[in-house]
Structures are given as structure tokens and as C-alpha cells.
Amino acid sequence: MISAAAAAFVGVVATSASSLAEDAEVKLRLSHNLPTNNALHYGVLEPWAKSIAEASKGSINIEIYPAQQLGPAKDHYNMARDGIVDIAFYLVGIEPGRFPIVSAAEIPFMVSDNGKGSRALYEWYQSYAASEMADVKVCAMFYDGGGTIHSKKKIEVPADLAGLKIRSPNVMAAELYRLAGASPVQMSANDAAEAVERGVVDAISFPWKLVQALGADRALKFHMDTTLYSLGTAILINKSSYDRLSDAQKAVVDSHCNADWSERLPKAWTDYEYEGRGVLLQNSEHTINPISDENLQEWKKLAEGVKAKWAQDVAAKGVEGEKVFGELTDLLAKYKAAY
């Protein structure tokens, strides 16, 4: 005999399923910046969209537009805010100074496990998203596959960067390189690969697979064997697009906007990038140099300077940097994801 509580639960599930079956189909446009052969597309966003379609009984159909078809990567927050797209994949550090709190997540040598680290990132930012990204619904947050330095000469200690021009992926890495005596240059990945060929830069910060996908490995034969940085990313939803959904459809979307999905999403992307490391390891023309514990401490000490600069910058905006940073590092430690 079914208990009253169990019967009530079955009734709720049946009602929800019935509501979804009756809902008119909704089409949502999702935009991101990478090509379809990148794992972000086929291993992260496609499975997430498919899961939403299945959970909504086909009433939510997410159409994915890759490779900046609808707008450049740096505009994706505004695109989600303004309803140009319904959903946007956004690199949280791509607009220097715009979101100072979340930029703490990109300080070098923060994360050792992208999955658990992404859970920590999502949970930490919940306290700040409503004020710092108030224009959108912050659905999920996760780290990318991580990156390191690929160069024309061996780089083992910060002093090895002195005098070099290096492509930087974000403000935090740029500050690290500046402290080491390099001249950081921020440019798109495609531009960076071309700059290497022309001799405009001596080194680049890239994930493992990307350095090969864009052909930069033809000129860059030395690779630091460490995850020097990880980029913070987010799935953002236009608020009006979300509000137009039925209650049952909102419940489906909400079930895909949480810490569990944030932890799950980066796995395929991380695996994809590290496949690139394996390829270079087997190539005798390339040198993948491990960083000794002693040398790693030099890099980490330099990263303390990056953190100090960030804390100074956010203090000018009324943010208590030590508190904010401590909350993130405590969660990373809790999930055993600290570097």
C-alpha cells in the first residue's frame, strides 16, 4: 500500500510531467565563441542542451550558435543582458575591470581540480552574482581546461620571462608576467597564433590542445608542464527569456543551473585539452619541462603579488578583498581543489 507522502510525491511528478507535455515548444538561442570541433561545443554545451530538451519532454529546444556567429566573445554578457541571445557562454575575465569580484577566481595557481574547483566557484559566487551580474541569470559557472606557457625557449623560473613578449589570456596572468619582467600582450587566440608566426610575440598562454589546433606549435617548442591558470566561465540566461517559461519549464532549467552541473560541465573540456599534452609528449621536436617544487614556489610567490594588486583594485571599489578571496580559497580547500 502506498503511503500518503509517496502518493503525494507521485502526484507532483505526474502533474509536472503532464504540464511539460502540454507546454508549447520554446526555442532558445545559445551563443559561444569556439568552433564546433572544440570540446566546449560538443562535450559541454551540446550535452547540457540535450539534457534540458529531454527533461522538458521536448518543450525546450536550445539552438547553439558557435564560433562567435552572433557576436564577439567579449560582447556575450551584453548579448545575454539585452536579449540578443537567450543564453550566452561568457568568459568572466574577458572585460578587464568590469566584474572585479569574480576576477579573483582567475588569479594564477588557484585550482588543481577543474570539476571540484568549478563547484567551489559556483557556490562562492552565489553571494555576489545578484549584485555584480544583476542583469542576467547566472546559471552555471566552471573553469576551462586550464593553460600554461608555450614558448620559443625553455621557461622554468619567472626570471626566464624577462624581456619576452607574451600573449596573456586575462588581466591576472598579464600581471604575473609583468611582475616577472615580461611584456604581456592581450589579444584573441587567433591573433596570437598569427603573432607567433610573425615573431611579434615570443610566447603565449594557451591550453594544450589549442596551441596545436591553431598551429602555434610550429614555432613554439617549449612548454611548461603545469596548469598556470584557469579561466572562469559562465552560462548566462536572459531574464526575460527565463520569465517567459512556464513554471514546469523553469523547474527544468533550474535543475540544470546549479553546483552539480557546474562540477560536471568542464570534464570533457579538460580531458580534451590534456589530450593535447599527450600528443606533444610523444613528439620529439617538443620539450615539456616539469617545474620543480622549488621553482614552483617562485611562481606562487609571484602570484601573491597578483593577488595583492587585485585586492588593492577591489578595495578602491568598496570590496573587502581578503574576505572575498578567503571565502573562495576555503571552498577550494573544502573540495580538495586548491592548487
Could you walk me through the main structural features you see in this protein, from its secondary elements to its overall organization?
Pfam families: DctP (PF03480). Keywords: Signal. Residues 1-21 form the signal peptide. The protein is an alpha/beta fold and 339 residues long. It folds into 2 domains: 23-144 and 231-272, 3-Layer(aba) Sandwich (D-Maltodextrin-Binding Protein, domain 2), CATH 3.40.190.170; 148-229 and 276-334, D-Maltodextrin-Binding Protein, domain 2. It is built from 13 helices and 11 strands. It has helices spanning 4-22, 39-55, 76-82, 114-132, 171-179, 189-198, 208-213, 239-243, 247-254, 259-264, 267-281, 293-315, 321-334; strands at 26-31, 60-65, 87-91, 136-143, 148-151, 165-168, 183-186, 203-206, 222-225, 232-238, 287-290. The protein has a 6-stranded mixed β-sheet, sandwiched between helices. It has a 5-stranded mixed β-sheet with strand order 2-1-3-10-4. Helix 2 (39-55) links the parallel strand 1 (26-31) and strand 2 (60-65). Helix 5 (171-179) packs across helix 12 (293-315). It is globular. The N and C termini lie far apart (53 Å). Residues 5-15 have low confidence and may be disordered.
According to CATH, what is the topology of the largest domain? Answer: D-Maltodextrin-Binding Protein, domain 2
Could you say what the CATH architecture of the largest domain is? 3-Layer(aba) Sandwich
Largest sheet: 6 strands, mixed
Secondary-structure-based class equals: alpha/beta
Pfam family, one: DctP
Protein name: TRAP transporter substrate-binding protein
Keywords: Signal
Signal peptide: 1-21
